[in-house]
Amino acid sequence: MSGLTVGIIGMGFMGSVHARHYRDNGRVDRLLVATPVEQEQKIARERFGAEVFSDYRSMIQQGQPQAVSICTPNFDHYEIASWLMQEAPGIAILIEKPLGVNDQQVAKLTKLAAGHQSPILVGHSLRFAGAYIKGRELLRQNAIGKPCYLEARYKWFKDFSKFPAWKRDPELSGGGFLMQSGLHMLDLFVWYADSPVVEVTGHAEDLYFKDFPVEDTFFGTVRFANGVAAHLVGSSATKGFIDYGIEVYGERGAIKVESVAVPGGLDIDNHSVSLFTEESAYSPSGALVIPSAPKSDFWKDEINHFVSCVLDGTAPIVTPADAKIVMDVCFALYKSAALGGKTIRL
Ligand SMILES: NC(=O)c1ccc[n+]([C@@H]2O[C@H](COP(=O)([O-])OP(=O)(O)OC[C@H]3O[C@@H](n4cnc5c(N)ncnc54)[C@H](O)[C@@H]3O)[C@@H](O)[C@H]2O)c1
Questions:
Q1: Which of 131, 173, 277, 346 is most buried as measured by Cβ atoms within 10 A of its Cβ?
Q2: Burial, 126: exposed, middle or buried (Cβ in 10 Å; 0-12, 13-18, 19+)?
Q3: Which ligand 1 atom sits closest to the C-alpha of 74?
Q4: Do 78 and 134 lie in a common domain?
Q5: Does residue 280 share a domain with residue 155?
Q6: Three-state SS for 210?
């Protein structure tokens, strides 16, 4: 099978990212785009050579794609994905994170997905970032022994006042910092700790963007059945400062995957990976910087993986069932925060 027809639903920031990588994939013949916004239809046509529809149902019925990407605002994921899973069982689906904005939506979608006949991938993008893959590989290769403690730092000033309105509305987004950004770190926790979550404690804060009803900062602790504890220090209230990455502390040493800040933001594909152990050949800074941490393009690799799921039968590496585990942690953390930091058992 070759010459894939792919439909993208939503042509904002993430829809454009998907379109670029489908266009460059080499195995996608036709690109379809559904968005109700005329300016975005123009971009889809002119920049990506897409056939354009104003509604996703007509795109599916008239365009007959074999695969679709859902890149709409968070609140729409459930309606669109559940429609596709019920009406179009032969279509492969890449659904952007989050899987849903509340636990009922996530539970229903996970159930529907289990009966879907075609691959479904959820866009937990850091699982495609070379440095994070390398950090986890080191952990699995026993480079630092059994892990004890994980710490994720996601400090990156993002100007809420310039966000699309839906991102500032908790009903439409499902939440602020944690749902929109911190979710990537919760995903790393679950992926790295590789053990069921047993309890969480969280605190949501409005420290900088006090005028918006979504939190700009979240501090969370997640405990796993294997004894690992993980702590998230996450904030968009960090003007002029970026610190993004994860540290893994084990019985014999530590692994640090660290962001590289560049003018105007962060180069997520250009993290460095360092290993700290007593046996290492120490660099002057005390760490062995892993030279083989591959530079990747994680969004591109995610799209290429999805195309391979459709055309080659590759198993999706983040299924709705995997995403549900992360979403359950996220919802439990919000519940804890709403109860003033009460410990929530899962
Ligand atoms: N994986 C990642 O790293 C990552 C990064 C950013 C955003 N995202 C996710 O991608 C999704 C989109 O975020 P964004 O930043 O692109 O938002 P955005 O507001 O820039 O884009 C959303 C688009 O959806 C369109 N839209 C709304 N309802 C629609 C409908 N019913 N049918 C078709 N189009 C519709 C809007 O016109 C807009 O083009 C979100 O769920 C977000 O969480 C993921």
A1: 131
A2: buried
A3: 41
A4: no
A5: yes
A6: coil
| Ligand 1 centroid to residue 278 C-alpha, Å | 46
Domain that holds residue 56: 4-125+301-318
* Structure-token pair, residue 143: 């480079």
Total count of residues recorded for the chain = 346
Number of domains in the chain: 2
**How far is the centre of ligand 1, averaged over its atoms, from the C-alpha of 243 (Å)?**
25
**How far is it, in rounded angstroms, from Cα 142 to Cα 278?**
14
Per-residue pLDDT of the chain (346 residues; tens, 9 = 90+): 458 999 999 999 999 999 999 999 999 999 999 999 999 999 999 999 999 999 999 999 999 999 999 999 999 999 999 999 999 999 999 999 999 999 999 999 999 999 999 999 999 999 999 889 999 999 999 999 999 999 999 999 989 999 999 999 999 999 999 999 999 999 999 999 999 999 999 999 999 999 899 999 999 999 999 999 999 999 999 998 889 999 999 998 999 998 777 777 777 777 788 888 776 655 455 566 666 556 678 999 999 999 999 999 999 999 999 999 999 999 999 999 999 999 999 9
Residue whose C-alpha is closest to residue 303's, from 18, 26, 32: 18
